[in-house]
Amino acid sequence: MSPPSQRILIVRPSALGDVCRTVPALASLRAAYPQAVIDWVVRDAFVDAVRGHPAVNEIIPFPRKRFARWWKSPNVALEARRWFSAVRARRYDLVFDLQGLTRSGLITGATRAPRRVGWRSAREGAWLFYNRRHEGPTKRHIVDQMLELLEREQVKPILHDLRLYVPRDVEATWPDDRAVLGLDEKPYVVLAPTSRWVTKRWPADRWAALVPALRQRGFERFAIIGAPDEREQAAPFFDAVAALSEAAGEGVIDLVGRTSLAQTLAVIRDSSLVIAHDSAPLHMAVGFDRPSVGLFGPTDPEFVGPYGWEHGVVNALSPAERQSINFRDKGLGDGVMRRIAVGQVLDRVEAVRRPRTLVAVERVES
User: Fold this and answer.
1) Domains with residue ranges and CATH for the chain
2) Is the dihedral of CA 57, 82, 5, 149 positive or negative?
3) 46-64 residue pLDDT tens
4) What contacts 143, CB < 8 A, 6 or more positions away?
5) 22: closest CA among 2, 1, 38, 34?
6) Residues 171-221: pLDDT tens digits?
7) Are 291 and 353 in contact, with CB atoms under 8 Å apart?
């Protein structure tokens, strides 16, 4: 039986895709501690991804961008000090650092909780802030690594509950918002052709060629998603679609920068298929049990792929080839991703057309 910790904190502020795939850890903690207060520190820009989850009591926004240069402004330094003091004042009994970097380690240490848990191998000196350091993790998917850390503290893992939830306030207005966005009741495919890293991007002309190929297979509408700061990055895709033919753009709905994060969750949830790079939309699709195809180049889907939807992965590289490549090497350009052919993506589309059953989690009222 797990010890009766009553106040628990998850520290996993970023990145957005990582926040989405931390949900099984949250579900596992809720099952182990049904009466506990369970809070979660999340970067302020990503709060909407998980604030609707029934297993969490409160999301604590971490203003990363605001605090990034705290030493240059006395006012910001004071804000940061107050933020950390407020977290400490919550008097947590148990804290899990599921990120394992300097920033998350500092947050974990600042709580002064009696049990501060992390990996001894945590990078950037984060391990210094823990008083319960575990050896590991085993070399496997990042979701399994997080659950492994919980297991070391006698928390039984719930493996396949990655469900995400659209926040209630957004859900209430979604029928009207959906209509405004041009998404009526007809089925649509979500395409996410953008990525922060150029090395992870499938070329725009391939994305464009995918549209008529999918149309030939019965898909008629395509919702193109992306963040507001990705408009310029998405432009070559729309140009390439227009260059194919006058009719090629029919049914293509441009949502890049037009939806909030919470609305993007709803767009993905209501879709019939999601195709994305190794990026947050792919993990959101998993969270809503949407058939999903993930395009992987320099990153390894064995560790960061769509959990439970491995059969939807398109690999540009063999495991041996990937060992000598770093996705942060901008000199790679999109050369690795160019190895992926449209036909390979279509093959995976056919492979993911199947239902899957998820486990329920009871809602917790704060």
Assistant:
1) 7-153 (3.40.50.2000), 168-353 (3.40.50.2000)
2) positive
3) 999 999 999 999 999 999 9
4) 21, 24, 162, 307
5) 38
6) 999 999 999 999 988 999 999 999 999 999 999 999 999 999 999 999 999
7) yes
- Give the CA distances from residue 43 to residues 124, 254, 256, 265, in Å, rounded to whole numbers and listed in that order: 19, 27, 22, 17
Contacts of 23 (CB under 8 A, 6+ apart): 50, 53, 161, 162, 163, 164, 287
The rounded Cα 225 to chain-centroid distance in angstroms is 15
pLDDT at 354 over 70: no
- Tell me the pTM: 0.93
Q: What is the DSSP string of 203-265?
A: PHHHHHHHHHHHHTTT---EEE---GGGHHHHHHHHHHHHHH-TTTTTTEEE-TTTS-HHHHH
Do residues 61 and 273 make contact, with C-beta atoms less than 8 angstroms apart? no
Q: Which residues pair with 41 in a beta bridge?
A: 11, 60
For the record, the structure tokens of 46 come out as 């990503």
The distance of Cα 29 from the centroid of its chain, to the nearest Å, equals: 19
163 φ, ψ to 5°? -65, 140
